[in-house]
Amino acid sequence: MAITEPKTERLQLRQWRDSDRAPFAAMNADPVVMEYFPKLLNREESDAGVDRQIAHIDKHGWGFWAVETLAEKQFIGFVGIKNVTDDMPFAPAVEIGWRLAPTAWGKGYATEAARASLEYGFTRLGLKETVSFAVAGNLRSRAVMEKLGMVREDNFLHPGLPSGHPMQEHVLYRLSRSA
């Protein structure tokens, strides 16, 4: 399958490279970046995540792309769209998601790259809607969802977390192509 690599005014969304693995592992081991995730990831777990993203992009031509700044050619994290797992209560669906290094926060990169991902999903893939979700307290990610025009729906309990886990409650947002 041909791999799509969207570009924005300031960012390149692209397939992952081996050189992305170390900075991505550093992000996944950073308590600030991982504040709303159940645990920090070690290098092996982080690399397995990269491998899953590469496999999704190889299979579909799109996914959670690695993101780099055009000016500095610096890897800053990932943004993109991918299929949710079958155990999610709103599956099947395509989600939009992101994880950026703290040095990239507050610059509008997540919103810019997410808009390019949504544009691709709605125009090239013909998606009717996209979802996004986060731990209820993750106000930064929820702000990006709202900037994208996504509409909040009911909260749900993430099936990947044990009952009673403090991060089990998530907020679901949707955006339809017509919106």
Any overview of this molecule?
With 179 residues, the chain is an alpha+beta fold. Helices cover 28% and strands 27% of the residues. It contains 4 helices and 7 strands. It has helices at 21-28, 43-60, 109-124, 139-147, and strands at 11-14, 64-69, 75-83, 94-100, 129-135, 151-157, 169-176. A 4-stranded antiparallel beta sheet has the order 1-2-3-4, with helices on both faces. β2 and β3 form a beta hairpin. It is globular, with a radius of gyration of 15 Å. It starts with 10 loop residues before the first strand and ends with a strand.
Give the helices and strands, then pairings:
Layout: E1 11-14, H1 21-28, H2 43-60, E2 64-69, E3 75-83, E4 94-100, H3 109-124, E5 129-135, H4 139-147, E6 151-157, E7 169-176
Antiparallel strand pairs: 1-2, 2-3, 3-4, 5-7, 6-7
Helix pairs in contact: 1-2
